From TrEMBL:
The keyword Chaperone applies. GO terms for cellular component: axon; dendritic microtubule; protein folding chaperone complex. Co-chaperone for HSP70 and HSC70 chaperone proteins. Acts as a nucleotide-exchange factor (NEF) promoting the release of ADP from the HSP70 and HSC70 proteins thereby triggering client/substrate protein release. Residues 25-59, 164-194 form a coiled coil. Binds to the ATPase domain of HSP/HSC70 chaperones. May interact with NWD1. Interacts with HSPA1A (via NBD), HSPA1B (via NBD) and HSPA8. May interact with DNJC9; the interaction seems to be histone-dependent. The keyword Coiled coil applies. Gene3D superfamilies: 1.20.58.890. Residues 109-189 form the BAG domain. This is BAG family molecular chaperone regulator 2. One of its GO terms (molecular function) is adenyl-nucleotide exchange factor activity. One of its GO terms (biological process) is positive regulation of proteasomal protein catabolic process.
Length: 211
């Protein structure tokens, strides 16, 4: 009888210890789950800062190369460029880096995708129109919805092999390049229009002198 009581007490002690360990483990796991959410929120916030930095630099650069900047006095343009350079310098002081964890296959896919884009960019000066069409097909390969134009199937398979964060960065880079090309097209057209208008005015003035 006494032995049975001792055994029962020992079993009870083991049960209590086991129950206590399970509760402690559960609390630790819950804490880690909460921390994981905060870590992901931190990465998302840092990525958002990265994107905002890229957008600000692009906007400053766009203003400096805008048609409006060409149509003001040299003094005003110099003053505005000083302000733009100051803003660009302050923007560049913000250093944010979000490293993406990749396996060897994803690393290789990213290198391949980057190399393809760089090759297209290197051809901008030689054939801007063809380079733009090629970029559009690369961009279409990154869209989840039905693309508006042809898709570079080879590039699409390469991008799918990249890490998800890298896929987003590749898409953003192509969007930026296409916007820059579009802005360049507009600037060239405005310049040609202003030249055409100037030539027409000169011709009219010359004709009026002979009348």
């Amino acid at each position: 009888m006494a032995q049975a009581k001792i055994n029962a007490k020992a079993n009870e002690g083991r049960f209590c210890r086991s129950s206590s360990m399970a509760d402690r483990s559960s609390r630790l796991l819950e804490s880690l789950d909460q921390l994981e959410l905060r870590v992901e929120a931190l990465r998302e916030a840092a990525t958002a800062v990265e994107q905002e930095k890229e957008i600000l630099l692009e906007m400053i650069h766009s203003i400096q190369n805008s048609q409006d900047m060409r149509q003001i006095s040299d003094g005003e343009r110099e003053e505005l460029n000083l302000t733009a350079n100051r803003l660009m310098g302050r923007t560049l002081t913000v250093e944010v880096s979000v490293e993406t964890i990749r396996n060897p296959q994803q690393q290789e896919s990213l290198k391949h995708a980057t190399r393809i884009i760089d090759e297209v960019v290197s051809k901008f000066l030689d054939d801007l129109g063809n380079a733009k069409s090629h970029l559009m097909s690369l961009y279409s390969a990154c869209l989840s919805e039905v693309p508006p134009g042809p898709v570079d199937q080879k590039f699409q398979s390469i991008v799918i092999g990249c890490a998800l964060e890298d896929q987003k960065k590749i898409k953003r880079r192509l969007e930026t390049l296409l916007r820059n090309i579009e802005n360049s097209d507009k600037a060239i057209k405005l310049l040609e229009h202003s030249k055409g208008a100037g030539s027409k005015t000169l011709q009219q003035n010359a004709e009026s002198k002979f009348k």
